[in-house]
Amino acid sequence: MSMGSEGATPGYLVWRLSTKWRVAVDRAVAPLGLTHAQYAIVASLHGMRRAGERPSQRRLADHTGLEPLYVSKLARALESAGLIERTRDPRDPRAVQLTLTEQGEDVTRRAVKVVHALLERLTEPLGGLDSTRTRTFTGELALLLDTPLEPPYDSTAETTADGNDDSDHHDQSDKGTS
One digit per residue, pLDDT tens: the chain, 178 residues? Predict the structure, then answer.
C-alpha cells in the first residue's frame, strides 16, 4: 500500500483509483480526439450496436451511469466531430437515438484497442485483465455499484448509530469522507 493510502477509507481509495484511471484513459485516447467521457459514450454505443441495440440518449445515460444532460452534451460534441449521428426515434418523437458513423466506428475500434492495452497495464499488479484476482476485484466493484444507495444519506446527521458525536470518527478528513 502506498504511503498516502495507509489508513485510508475505502471511499477515498475508490475515488483516488477512479481519478487515476480516468486521467490515464484521457491521456490514452487524446491522440484519437477523444476524452474519457466521450470514449465511454462511443465504446458503449459500439458494444450496444454489436448486441443489436440502437439506444436513445436516455438509454445510453442509464447504461453508462452518466447524467442524461451530460450525455446530451457529449452526443452533440461527438456529432459535431462526425463520430455519431443523432436522429429522432420513429416510435417516440421525444427520444433521440444515437448511432456511430463510419468514422466513429473506426475511431472507436482504435480507442478500444488502446484502452484495452492500458487496462492490461493498469491491472498488472493483480495479474492482468484475465487473472483470477482481477475477476474477483471486478466482481466486488460490480457488487458495490449494483447496491442501491436508498434511502438517501442524511448529511445533516451529527451522531452515529450508537449515539456518539460523529466528529471523532473522521480520522481521514483529508483523505476523503466518501
Answer: 555 678 899 999 999 999 999 999 999 999 999 999 999 999 999 999 999 988 999 999 999 999 999 999 999 999 999 999 999 988 888 889 999 999 999 999 999 999 999 999 999 999 999 999 999 999 999 999 888 877 666 666 555 555 554 444 444 444 554 4
Dihedral (CA of 71, 116, 109, 32) sign: positive
Closest CA to 41 of 93, 83, 89, 96: 83
SS3 label, residue 165: strand
Strand partners, 99: 85
CA nearest neighbour of 75 among 103, 50, 111, 100:
100
d(CA 65, CA 176): 22
Stated as kind and residue range, the H or E segment containing 133 is helix 132-146
Residues 6+ away with beta carbon under 8 Å from 178: 9, 11, 12, 14, 15
